[in-house]
Amino acid sequence: MHIDPAVYVRSAIRSVPDWPKPGITFRDITPVLQDPRSFRVLIDLFVYRYMRQRLDLVAGIDARGFILGSVLAYELNLGFVPVRKKGKLPFQTVAEEYSLEYGNATVEMHTDSVRPGQRVLLIDDLIATGGTMVAASKLLQRLGANVIEAAAIIDLPYLGGSQALKDTGLPIYTVCSFDEGAA
């Protein structure tokens, strides 16, 4: 019996109701990472998608994007650059502020993270409202990078993030999606 790899990965994602607050269902990728088979299937999905594309770097968003991005960069024989939360990088940085549900946040990168014209894959674990990923993409573009695609394990389309990314002209790829309240 053949199981679709994306369905296999989705089945390993844990749904935690009412966390971090009532009415929110948190999509926890920890079980995917803990299980060697599901982690390998996940990484292989990304590797197969990007192995024949001309890329220079993988940029991972703080913090779960670091896990996926660094492993993917290694598998594709590419460099990895972190997109960090404000105040975490020791060298000269460039910053991009974005809106959250209750206020603003900022992501930063070192000014020498990318060179103009480099082709970059941007990766994180989840697309919710899209704010962090849009800000990270803008940051990479300000440094001269060509962001080829934004990738994530999970899309929560009812929160509008994937549409917000598409509206900027950035192609996206996600392994699976969850509708509001879906198990």
From TrEMBL:
Pfam families: Pribosyltran
E.C. number(s) listed in UniProt: 2.4.2.7
Molecular function (Gene Ontology), one example: adenine phosphoribosyltransferase activity
Catalytic activity from the UniProt record: AMP + diphosphate = 5-phospho-alpha-D-ribose 1-diphosphate + adenine
Residue stretches in coiled coil: none
Pathway connected to this protein: Purine metabolism; AMP biosynthesis via salvage pathway; AMP from adenine: step 1/1
InterPro entries membership: Ade_phspho_trans, PRTase-like, PRTase_dom, UPRTase/APRTase
Subunit structure: Homodimer.
PANTHER family with a match to the protein in the record: ADENINE PHOSPHORIBOSYLTRANSFERASE
Similarity annotation: Belongs to the purine/pyrimidine phosphoribosyltransferase family.
Cited NCBIfam families: apt (TIGR01090), PRK02304.1-3 (NF002634), PRK02304.1-5 (NF002636)
Record-given protein name: Adenine phosphoribosyltransferase
Native species: Pollutimonas thiosulfatoxidans
